[in-house]
Structure to design on (306 residues):
C-alpha cells in the first residue's frame, strides 16, 4: 500500500524515521509531503495514496474527491476537527486519531500556564500559589485526568465534569464529580478546558460561565479556540477585573485582549500542547502502527467516523 505522510508542519526527524521503519517493515511504500506551501499541493499529492498520516493538515471534501484509492486517514493526535468526517464517510474512508499520545505534553503545558498566570508572567509583581485552590476540569478524558492528577500533586482540590463518565469513574481518577457546567465554573479558582470543538460546544464558553467564576479565577484553554465565545470573553474580562484567561489557541481578538487587559491574558504564539519531542514521536509511531494493523487485520479501534 502507498502511504502518504502529509505534514505541512513536519514531524521531528526521529519520528519520521520511526514511521518509515514501521511501515516499510510491513511491506508498505512511504511517500512524504512536508512543508507544502499551499493546500492545492496536498490535493495533488493524494491521487494514488491508499493511506494518509497527517497532523493539523486539512482533509477536506476536495482532498477526498482527489483520492480515489484512499482507505484510511490517521490524524497523529487527539483532535480531528481538521478532517471532514462526513465527507470521509461518504467516500468510504476510515478516519482515526491517536488518543493519549499527546496527553502528557498537553497536561504539563496546562499546569505550566496556570503557574505562569499565578506568578503574573514571571514579573516581579506579587503572585499567588496553586496549593489550596480548586481546579475544575471540563472533560475528564486522557488529558483532563492527567491535568487533575498533576494538579493534585501540587496541593490543589480537583473537580471534574464529564457526561461520558460515571461518578465512580471520576472519583477513581482522583476528582470530585460535578453534574452541571454551571456548578463546575461556580466553584473553580482555575478551570481547565478539554472539550472538543463540536456543534454543541462551539462558542459555549463565554460571558455567562465566566461571570460565575470565583473572585480571582483563571480560565485555561488548551483545547480548541472555537469553544470560546470571544465577544463574551471580552465582556466578562471588562466587567470582572479579577478574572484571567490563558490559552494555547490564540483568539482572533488577541491584540484587543492584550491592549485592554495586559497580563490578565496570555496566548502562546502557536499551539504548543503537543510540541514536545516525546509527543511528536509517540503520535507518529502510533499512527503508523494503526495503519499497519488496519491493513493486516481490519482493526478499527480508534475510528472516529462511522
Amino acid at each position: 500500500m502507498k502511504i502518504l505522510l502529509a505534514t505541512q508542519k513536519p514531524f521531528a526527524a526521529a519520528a519520521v524515521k520511526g514511521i518509515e521503519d514501521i511501515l516499510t517493515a510491513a511491506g508498505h511504500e512511504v511517500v512524504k509531503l512536508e512543508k507544502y506551501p499551499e493546500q492545492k499541493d496536498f490535493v495533488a499529492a493524494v491521487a494514488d495514496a491508499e493511506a494518509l498520516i497527517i497532523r493539523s493538515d486539512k482533509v477536506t471534501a476536495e482532498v477526498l474527491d482527489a483520492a480515489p484509492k484512499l482507505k484510511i486517514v490517521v490524524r497523529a493526535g487527539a483532535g480531528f476537527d481538521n478532517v471532514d468526517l462526513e465527507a470521509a464517510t461518504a467516500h468510504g474512508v476510515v478516519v482515526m486519531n491517536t488518543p493519549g499520545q499527546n496527553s502528557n505534553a498537553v497536561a504539563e503545558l496546562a499546569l505550566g500556564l496556570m503557574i505562569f498566570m499565578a506568578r503574573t508572567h514571571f514579573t516581579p509583581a506579587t503572585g499567588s500559589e496553586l496549593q489550596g485552590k480548586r481546579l475544575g476540569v471540563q472533560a475528564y478524558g486522557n488529558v483532563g485526568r492527567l491535568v487533575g492528577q498533576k494538579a493534585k500533586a501540587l496541593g490543589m482540590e480537583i473537580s471534574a465534569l464529564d457526561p461520558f463518565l460515571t461518578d465512580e469513574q471520576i472519583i477513581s481518577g482522583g476528582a470530585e464529580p460535578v453534574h452541571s457546567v454551571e456548578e463546575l465554573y461556580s466553584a473553580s479558582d482555575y478551570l481547565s478546558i478539554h472539550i472538543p470543538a463540536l456543534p454543541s460546544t462551539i462558542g459555549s464558553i463565554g460571558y455567562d460561565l465566566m461571570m460565575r467564576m470565583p473572585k480571582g479565577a483563571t480560565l485555561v484553554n488548551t483545547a480548541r479556540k472555537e469553544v470560546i465565545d470571544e465577544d463574551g470573553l471580552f465582556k466578562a474580562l471588562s466587567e470582572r477585573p479579577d478574572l484571567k484567561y490563558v490559552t494555547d489557541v490564540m483568539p482572533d481578538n488577541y491584540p484587543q485582549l492584550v491592549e485592554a487587559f495586559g497580563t490578565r491574558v496570555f496566548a502562546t504564539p502557536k499551539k504548543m500542547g503537543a510540541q514536545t519531542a516525546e509527543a511528536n514521536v509517540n503520535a507518529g509511531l502510533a499512527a503508523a502502527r494503526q495503519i499497519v494493523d488496519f491493513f493486516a487485520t481490519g482493526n478499527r479501534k480508534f475510528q472516529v467516523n462511522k
